[in-house]
Design a protein that fits this description.
By secondary structure, this protein is an alpha+beta fold. The protein has three domains: 77 residues, no CATH class; 178 residues, no CATH class; 143 residues, no CATH class. It is built from eight helices and 17 strands. About 9% of the residues have low confidence. InterPro entries: GPCR_2-like_7TM, GPCR_LN-TM7.
């Protein structure tokens, strides 16, 4: 939770991520994803060759002609820039990010006053489609990084946010159709060969800088905006506008360490007391349960006459519950050692599965006695049944553990520690 104006706010992570409060990070739930559209806003500066300067005398003589040529060259240069930019971006990302498909430039914004200068600045929207399994973190970081020299001349692309486009003055969207961009002759370029997948209804992610940071939501009235920064009102905290995600009624900003509430600082006194009481009660109940199970096992081990078939079942059930409680209570924070944490997680999973199965075995044995009148007083019958129950318990537990481990390796979709165990808790 986050402290702001004496109240806690929900910490929000991107889809398929969860908030790791201990490290203040958004962690992946899945190792790889597929079938995703990525939409990125870029501010691009296209460098042109220097144009011949028109002398003052010529400008005075041919002013009307020059102005007409400027307008014509502006539209022509913009179309050339569009084609060069799309070709360069698509070639670059399809080479750098394997399996990515550059579908199209969905929007192209330019200054209202276009000049025939050596540097043309635009804001563009690029759409990428990745249908195969891929590392989303690597792809997003590549798309949200600035890069240069991907075109014929040195040009620079800088990722920006959607909000940055809204607050940049004097920009207008380029009209492709009325300006002849979609003339048939332009479709000779190889990158215009688009797959039908580009028009499929896949999940769309709007990529911004620091996309994977944990975020909190602020209302519009709580912030101040300018062309470069977002400032929290009454706080000395400033964020670059390109890292901000705009919502319908506010903004999502990265959770800064200065905004994280220390224990008790953002909680009321009653809430802090309630949390402390819950923790103490949980500890008392767990210790009581462990103590009772230990006493139960001691009694069954000391008194031989209690070690009938139901008694053996109770003894094994108590053992599973005792060790499972102990591992959960004292071992779940052993994240400092990866191997130990994974071992604790795997063993805890096995023991809780075993506890459920031995409860099932107890009820099954009672059913067999009352319905089939099975004789369990004979030592030979007792041991045969006990061995069968023991084999059943171990086999089913190992089957579930094996399924979990095989899924971890085969699906390639999980990042939950190693072998599917151990994350921020063991």
């Amino acid at each position: 939770m986050h402290l702001f104006k004496d109240k806690c706010r929900e910490v929000i992570c991107p889809e398929r991520h969860y908030y790791n409060k201990q490290n203040n990070k958004c962690e992946r739930i899945y190792r790889n994803v597929r079938d995703v559209f990525y939409q990125v806003y870029y501010k691009i500066t296209v460098q042109q060759e220097k144009v011949d300067q028109i002398t003052v005398e010529q400008e005075k003589v041919d002013q009307i002609i020059v102005e007409q040529e400027k307008v014509e060259c502006s539209i022509g240069c913009m179309i050339d820039d569009y084609l060069r930019v799309e070709d360069g971006i698509c070639s670059y990302f399809e080479r750098v990010l394997s399996g990515s498909q550059c579908c199209y430039l969905s929007n192209w914004y330019h200054p209202k006053d276009i000049k025939n200068s050596t540097h043309h600045e635009y804001i563009i929207v690029v759409n990428f489609l990745v249908t195969n399994l891929h590392n989303q973190t690597m792809y997003v970081e590549s798309m949200s990084s600035s890069f240069v020299e991907i075109f014929e001349n040195k040009s620079q692309l800088e990722p920006i946010s959607r909000k940055a486009l809204d607050i940049v003055p004097d920009l207008t969207e380029f009209d492709y159709f009325n300006n002849g961009l979609y003339d048939a002759s332009y479709y000779d370029y190889p990158f215009y060969t688009r797959d039908d997948h580009c028009y499929a209804d896949y999940k769309t992610i709007n990529v911004v800088a620091n996309y994977f940071c944990p975020r909190i939501k602020l209302l519009t009235k709580e912030v101040q905006l300018n062309t470069s920064y977002l400032t929290i009102m009454n706080k000395n905290i400033v964020f670059e506008i390109n890292s901000v995600i705009q919502m319908e009624d506010g903004f999502l900003i990265c959770l800064d360490d200065r905004m994280i509430a220390k224990r008790g600082s953002g909680e009321s006194k009653s809430q802090t007391q309630r949390n402390d009481i819950e923790n103490i009660l949980s500890l008392i109940c767990s210790i009581t349960s462990i103590t009772s199970l230990a006493l139960t096992m001691t009694v069954y081990l000391l008194l031989k006459e209690l070690r009938t078939l139901p008694g053996l079942q109770q003894l094994i059930l108590s053992f599973h519950l005792l060790v499972a409680h102990a591992l959960y209570l004292f071992g779940m924070n052993a994240t400092y050692n990866t191997a130990l944490c994974v071992a604790i997680g795997l063993l805890t999973h096995y023991l809780w599965l075993g506890s459920v199965l031995w409860m099932h075995i107890c009820t099954l044995n009672i059913f067999r006695i009352f319905y089939y009148h099975v004789n369990t007083h004979s030592i030979s019958n007792r041991m045969k049944l006990f061995q069968r129950y023991l084999l059943y318990s171990i086999s089913v537990c190992c089957l579930f553990l094996t399924i979990n481990i095989v899924y971890f390796f085969v699906s390639d979709n999980s990042t939950l520690g190693y072998l599917g165990y151990g994350v921020d808790r063991c």
